[in-house]
What does this fold into?
Amino acid sequence: MTEQELRLKSVAYRRTILTIIHHAKAGHTGGSLSCIDILNVLYNHVMNVSPENFSDPNRDRYIQSKGHAVEALYTVLADRGFFPAEALYTLSRYQSHFVGHPTRKVPGIEQNTGALGHGLSVAVGLALAAKKDKRPYRVFTLLGDGELTEGSNWEASMSAAHYRLDNLVAIVDRNGLQISGPTEQVMSLESLTDKFTAFGFAVRTCDGNDIGDLLRVFEALPFAPGKPNLILARTVKGKGVSFIENALNWHHKVPSDDELARALAELDEAERLLKVVV
Amino acid sequence: MELGRPNLDEFAATLLELARDNPDILVLTSDSRGSGKLQPFAEQLPDQLIEVGIAEQNLVGIAAGLAAAGKIVFGVSPACFLTARALEQIKNDVGYSDQKVKLVGISAGVSYGALGSTHHSLHDLAALRAINNIDIVVPADNFETREAVRAAVTHPRPLYLRFGKKPMPHLHRPGTPFAIGKAITLAQGSDVTFVAAGEAVAPAVEASELLRAEGVSCGVISMHTVKPLDVETLLNAARRSRALITVEEHSVYGGLGEACASVLLQHGLIRPFCIVGIPDEYTVTGSQMEIFVHYGISGEGLAQRARQLLEVELIQ
It folds into this structure.
């Protein structure tokens, strides 16, 4: 898929995320919009995983530690054909498998997540198994920045470096906001580059909302032999819709009918501009 | 009763034997290979032992990831830390995610004796019973331990195994059948039946011998699987016996005793009934055996409970 096609996909994904959250009257809007470009590039360009090879032990694995941004994940999985897109409209409905956090009952999902600080350890286990069995798969895990205050992440980081898991790729969705406010006000995280470097990761930063930059950083994997990889992806919470961007109350705010219409109009305009450039 | 070795030693020896023939069997330790008697395993099968350091949450998370990749994973850590520090990982990464990890709580109950309440696990059965999709097995002797570890390898659900470190007497006749979920009836009795688990079974057997010498018809059941409980065996014992006593190395809250009480009451079987375990207090200082005797988990202590219970029943 070309860079331009991926950019157009991101617009379409944003449209779906907002529409299904509006339909369900529940969801994590800001965090889903901040990480969607990362998921787009992972599922459409980087990872060797598809509905056809999902039982292949050599498929790449994806664990979404920031489980609350599940609408982004469901959207991409539907587009990749793991299940019919209509299923997205059962989100949070009575007896639906499409819970507000990922579960393995949804095709394409590897691990139930949602409690924070869990994904990296599970990813370490999967990466360790690949090393033991000399399998070629890679393990990708998406962490929120707010969840980095959970100590379990640092236990997992130590073990990733100790076992030299260069087949492990942790991506931090560094949107800078968590439910109560800016991450640096809630609990200082910086310098994340220094922290992860000190814990033994090979660290790269990128613009996590720029398809081209994401493609370049994933292309550079593995960053260093024998070291786990960490991508510090600078993103904007709520990216793509002017009145949702960097707005604290949109962590899990649901768009009203009017807000949805305005957001979709902005996305239509973004799509039109992308096509003009071509 | 002829004395065997600690269940922990039996566990480690059985696991080593099984892992030699199956390279997919992996052991995770949290600086616990020594206390888990896994030093020989570490020396003989170094590629099958993964050390995570003192980090129980990470141990359980990594175990889930390895299991997701098809490995047969035994996560071994002192029961007190494993089931408290890593409870959220057990709930989500293992149970909810249905990763068939075998969690092994070592030196369980009050095995650490005088090291104190930080090192006691008197909450683990209660905590794990309330978590969906994890079975709980508490073997009583070397035979039950060996069979439980063998069964664990192919067990179709996440599993928690709980072992102590004191040498255990052999309780079972050769050829006794063993299956997870199926209690073993050591003796049937019409006056009183002890329903016990783990290292509390041996004192129940001692008590039954004392009582039998006094002409009391006394049964003993090893309820090694605390979840799912063998309801049928329990109900049959209750139908046979005038009184029931449960015995466990656990808080009297939320463990085997309350599990049995719940089943009996909901089946309308009202019997003189007593839960023997550790009361809701920080335990008295002492060795495991001293703590057992202090709280009446001994042959004489349990026999006395039975006499009292039967006397009450006779008066009624």
User: Anything to note?
Assistant: The mean pLDDT of chain B is 97. The interface with chain A takes residues 26, 47, 50, 52-53, 55, 57-58, 60-71, 88-89, 92-93, 96-99 of chain B (CB under 8 Å).
